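Appendix B. Chain record.
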Amino acid sequence: MVKECPEGKIINPKTGRCIKKPKEKTKKKVCPEGKIINPKTGRCINKPKEKTKKKVCPEGKIINPKTGRCIKKPKEKKPTKSTVPIKGHMDSFFTGVGDTYDNSKDKKMWKHETMSGKYDWNKDKNVGNIKSTSKCSSGTDGEIVYDVKSNGVLLAKNYSDDIDTDGWWASEKWDGYRAVWNGKSFVSRQGKNFDVPEFYKAIMPPNIALDGELWLGRGKFEKCGLLRQKIPKKHEEKLKWQNKWVESDIKYEVFDILNIDKPFEERMKLLNDLVKERNSCIKELGIKCSPPLEFTKQTKVTRDEALQMAKDVIAGGGEGIMLRQPGSFYEAKRSKTLYKIKEVDDMECKITGYKDGTGKYTNMLGSFVCSLVDKPDITFNVSGMDDKIRSSYKNTHPIGTIITITYNGLTGLGKPRHPRYLRIRHQEGY
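Structure tokens predicted for this chain:
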């Protein structure tokens, strides 16, 4: 007798037991032409278009991403040559923002024309630490090759009528700040750094030491305070500071090359060539302002011509002149090979305050704060006192004391230039 199973069940042929009837397999869904089943939803969706092969353009052409057509390949723009790592805030002074020039790949030797032919910096054994450099390498990429603190600089003696300077070289004495370009940066005689814009340092020769003066022009000494300012941290203030440098047209009046053991005339020929070379690099370095590097003109004069030249310079608002011995070598000390002729006047002024001393004058007087007797609104600082006065100034020089000072002419604002203490007015035995 065949076993019967309840509705919905069938006999398992292997066990003979009733099991649930398996569900009938549904027919596979068929989508209309042009559609396929979405495996996630089971619905029919549009069949995706087959990817077409990437279009290949003939040589010299590229695909226009907007039209898909082949167009002529644009010419590659050559990068602006600039040896200065330029940042966005420098774009007012440079032609190419963000561009850099790899001067390490430039194998050209910088050579100068001299009386004897080509002068090769690299082969001169007397050059010291000076390295060969490409024609327009940026000064910002240089290395310090002259330590001012350790080596010092050449200093002048005061001229007197008994000194025979006939046939010496004469040049104007610049009324600014003495500054040495040490191959990488500007420093004072004491080795203190001057903060200058990157574009200003860029024109200076890397790895070559120069002696000169940062100068704004005749009668502008009172504006030299800009040279003592530090680089502002805020972007807007930094831009203003850089603009002041450009507007002031600050020059570096260079008058000697350091660390080269050659007579004065040979150094001047090299220096003149150097200045011309560097100023010709203005365009390549991307600098937009006028050339900041200037060669100090030297003129051979008689003794009488020197004295007349000094008078003319002083009358024109300058400080005086410098006299240099022919054939002399650079001496990092106060030397008899260099003299200065400048105007010295004296006047009276009133002490209105004191400034504390620093360094060796700590806990002593640094300078007197004075005003003109007839123009009390014009104030200035007076130095040049001996240690005795600096120690007892409050007793010997109380506020209101009238003193006599020496000075080298007046600035454009009517202030005495380089005022130095001479004596208390009308005090006998002092």
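Further analysis of this model is presented in Appendix C.
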